[in-house]
Amino acid sequence: MPPSRQLTRRQIYRRRRIVVFGGLALALASFIYLPMTLLAPLRVAEVTLTVPEEPTPEVPALDFPGYGSSAVGAVGYPGVLAQAGATKPQPMASITKVITALVVLEKHPLGVDEEGPKITMDARDLAFYSEQLAMNGSVAPVSAGMTFSERDLLELTLVKSANNYTMSLARWAFGDNAAFLKAARAWLADHGLDKIKILEPTGIDADNVAPADQLVELGRIALEHPVVADIVASKNVRVPELGKLPNTNALLGVDGVDGIKTGTLDTFGANLLFSADYLVGEHPVTIVGVVLGGPDHDRINRDIRDLLKTALANFTEVEVAADDEPFATYRTVWGAETQAVAAGRVTLLTWAGEPVLAEVTTTEIRTGEAGTDVGRVVLTSGPSSAVVDLELATDLDDPGPWWRLTNPGLLF
């Protein structure tokens, strides 16, 4: 056996120094590494969108009359939804009176429960009666000294459709026809109804014309005015000295119809600007439409009922988000996974089977608890839209210290 080597003092010192500095280095490395791995932020979870495709509902063809000019629209929907027949301006007949009422109310506003100023009939009002009767226009009796409120004259104009009282209303508000026309044409221009032509307040003149699409817009404007909407929905009115007067619109109260104005010209035919209220699932729908140039009012009333039936069937309530329906999936680098799901059930109103579009927005997450708000979905179909919040379906937990210590390259 060879003799044992004795370490020199220098060698012993060197080895001690290695042990000490090695331990210090290890301690320093642990001091830096452990906090960096255990306390470092995790990498953001990857997101994959999983937007479901909504089925397109089948809807029937619209049953438009085979004559004249027709169009349908709806409150909240710009323009018209569909139209048929002639597109050029057609005689409005007494639909003109809707314009007259709105123009008068702009100058002399009324509340729904207000009667307004008193207006006394005189010789000029008697002359209006004779003039309109001679033209086979619709009239109501009048005599000098009769007194009516502004509301009375509006009801005689829109419900009874009495041409002579429409003339009296316009004269009271503006003084003469020239002043009325100036105001009416300015009002039409202000409301974008540039293709409507008006020469007098009643519609007895066949040159008072409008295209069907702009009459639909006129109907929407009329329904927005509380006084006009209230009057045109009245099946009858009671006017002092004239008694109870029925509305010329025989469709009121039938199939949801609640307005708006009839029109008749011997040289053209029967017109109706109409509105009807419905509930499609959870969604209220107000259809506005017009039929011009029908053979008579019995015929256009039947045809409008058919048109309304098919128009209503073109509105469909679609469930665009169910409770807990997934719209996105979160995946982490340590293999955990959860979904972003709808926070509640949402339905959307669609027209004519128009597709539903979804725009999903998600927030960046690393971990989170179930129910945490992580974004939203905006769902649209035409002008209809709905928003549903997204939340985590399950917890997304931290991977823990062991995974952090053994996967430093997957952090950050």
Describe the structure using short key phrases.
single chain; 412 residues; alpha+beta; Peptidoglycan synthesis regulatory factor (PBP3), Domain 2; Beta-lactamase; 3 domains; six-stranded antiparallel beta sheet
- In CATH, what is the class of the largest domain? Alpha Beta
| CATH topology heading of the largest domain | Beta-lactamase
Compute the number of structural domains.
3
Q: Work out the helicity level.
A: 25-40%
Characterize the biggest β-sheet: 6 strands, antiparallel
Q: Mind telling me the CATH superfamily name of the largest domain?
A: DD-peptidase/beta-lactamase superfamily
Give the second-level CATH assignment, the architecture of the largest domain.
Answer: 3-Layer(aba) Sandwich
Number of DSSP-assigned strands: 19
Radius of gyration: 38 Å
Strand content: 25-35%
What is the terminal separation in angstroms?
59 Å
Order of helices and strands: HEEEEHEHEHHHEHHEEEEEHEEEEEEEH
How would you summarize the topology of this molecule?
Elements: H1 9-38, E1 46-49, E2 69-74, E3 77-85, E4 90-91, H2 96-107, E5 118-120, H3 123-134, E6 147-149, H4 150-158, H5 163-174, H6 177-190, E7 209-210, H7 212-224, H8 226-232, E8 236-239, E9 243-246, E10 257-265, E11 269-280, E12 283-294, H9 297-313, E13 315-321, E14 326-331, E15 337-342, E16 346-351, E17 357-362, E18 373-381, E19 384-392, H10 401-406
Antiparallel strand pairs: 1-14, 2-3, 2-12, 4-7, 5-6, 8-9, 10-11, 11-12, 13-16, 14-15, 15-19, 17-18, 18-19
Overview of this protein structure:
With 412 residues, this protein is of the alpha+beta class. It has three domains: 1-39; 46-56 and 319-410, Peptidoglycan synthesis regulatory factor (PBP3), Domain 2 (Sandwich), CATH 2.60.410; 69-313, DD-peptidase/beta-lactamase superfamily (Beta-lactamase), CATH 3.40.710. The chain has helices at 9-38, 96-107, 123-134, 150-158, 163-174, 177-190, 212-224, 226-232, 297-313, 401-406; strands at residues 46-49, 69-74, 77-85, 90-91, 118-120, 147-149, 209-210, 236-239, 243-246, 257-265, 269-280, 283-294, 315-321, 326-331, 337-342, 346-351, 357-362, 373-381, 384-392. It has a six-stranded antiparallel beta sheet with strand order 1-14-15-19-18-17, with no helix packed on it. Strands 3-2-12-11-10 form a five-stranded antiparallel beta sheet, with helices on both faces. The protein has a two-stranded antiparallel sheet with strand order 4-7. A hairpin with a 3-residue loop joins strand 8 and strand 9. The longest helix is centred in the first third of the chain and has 30 residues, at 9-38. It is elongated, with a radius of gyration of 38 Å. It starts with 8 loop residues before the first helix and ends in a 6-residue tail after the last helix. The model is unreliable at 24-34 (pLDDT under 50).
